[in-house]
Amino acid sequence: MAMLEAAATGQAEWLKRLLPRFVGQKEDMVFRLTDLAATYDHTGVIRVVYKWWKSSGERGAIRCARAKSIAAAKGHLETVKCLLDPYGVDTFVPHQQALKHVHSDMVEAMNAAISSGKFAIIKYLNETCKEELYQEGTNHKCSFHLTKAIECRQVDIVEYLFSNGYKATVFEFAFSAAVSYGPFEVVDLLCSKERCSPKAIHKGFVVAAKAGQLAIMKYLRTKREFDEAAAFQHAAGCGQAEVVQQLYSEGFQISSTTLEEAAMVAGGGGHLEVLKLLYGKRTISDEVAVKVFLSAAKDNRLRCSDINDQVGVIEFLNAKGCISSDVII
User: Fold this and answer.
1) Please, are residues 280 and 251 in contact by the beta-carbon 8 Å criterion?
2) 47 within domain boundaries
3) Do residues 19 and 97 share a domain?
4) How many domains are contained in the chain?
5) CB 3.0 to 4.6 Å from 65: which of 48, 105, 172, 251, for a disulfide?
6) Is the dihedral of CA 121, 127, 129, 133 positive or negative?
7) Which of 252, 323, 324 is nearest to 281 (CA)?
């Protein structure tokens, strides 16, 4: 279609002549045209489309959410400004009202920019939208963008957001994301902020164990001593056999209670490799084995990975000869 070609090639004047002839669903056409304009960084096309929308008698501003995310992901700063600037195009409503109505659009655009590492877009959105960008989420200060940057291993973006958009109230969420996903540089960055209380570091150690982050666990040990029982249990429950083995090799003295809890969550989660490892280190009583068997049979334990071989756990315990026929029945 000629209009789509004009939008894709940035021929705003040609598009201006074609639009009055269009017969069809205007809103859908606006979305298609602005998506193309955002893809190829044609701000002139966007302005023409907005003005056509207004002149056609349609009520209200058009959001073009997908176009915002496309432009943000590609790093097209001027296009993002054109799509978001409430004063540059007269079809927009006043600034604060516009921010209120398109909050979700900007959150998605910010997310797209973070995923693609487009720092200029992130800086613009952060400075333009300010608090509006962070109003939803835990503790009324959305940690989504910061944790997304951590997950995407965008260290420079993490440092910027942490210094220019987030308060201490989200530190715990950021730190948990960092020890879960890495990279190590982010964990070191957050620890260097001197906001890591002993409680936060201990929780981070447990989270790192659940995620199988051995290097980060080693680093956190340089910060303080740990009671490793909680980390051991959570690692077992999440199928992190390597972490369980490492804790054993470092001389962790496992109590009977901790062993039983670890076996329960490992068996219930279907983590056969971990269960075999636990059996290889210490004798587990028949009474506990029955509890593990029933836990696996019920299939209702927390799982933190894709490993969930409950059948394998049941077969393993049955082969040990510690499960009587009346338990099976």
Assistant:
1) no
2) yes
3) yes
4) 3
5) 105
6) positive
7) 252
Kindly state whether residues 35 and 161 are assigned to the same domain. Answer: no
The count of residues in the chain is: 329
Asked if residue 88 and residue 22 are part of one domain, the reply reads yes
Q: Return the beta strands (E) in 93-145 as ranges.
A: none
Which tokens in the block code for residue 19? 């639009």
Do 29 and 103 reside in the same domain of the chain? yes
* H or E segment and range at residue 197: none
Same domain as 131, residue 11: yes
Does residue 211 share a domain with residue 270? no
Other CB atoms within a 10 A radius of the CB of residue 54 amount to 17
Any idea which residue has 């209009």 for tokens? 3
Domain that holds residue 318: 250-329
Burial class (CB within 10 angstroms; exposed 0-12, middle 13-18, buried 19+) of 253: exposed
Residue with tokens 């200029």: 120
Asked whether 189 and 155 are in contact (CB, 8 A), the reply is: yes
**What six digits make up the tokens of 78?**
């001027």
On whether both 214 and 125 belong to a single domain, the answer is: no
CATH assignment at residue 15: 1.25.40.20
pLDDT in tens, the chain (329 residues): 899 999 999 999 999 999 999 988 999 999 999 999 999 999 999 999 999 988 887 666 678 889 999 999 999 999 999 997 643 434 444 445 545 555 678 888 999 999 999 999 999 988 887 766 766 544 434 567 888 898 888 999 988 887 876 655 577 778 888 999 888 888 988 888 666 788 889 999 999 999 999 999 999 998 888 889 999 999 999 999 999 999 988 888 888 899 999 999 999 889 999 999 999 888 888 888 888 888 888 765 455 555 578 889 888 888 887 776 666 65
Q: How far apart are the first and last CA of the chain?
A: 69
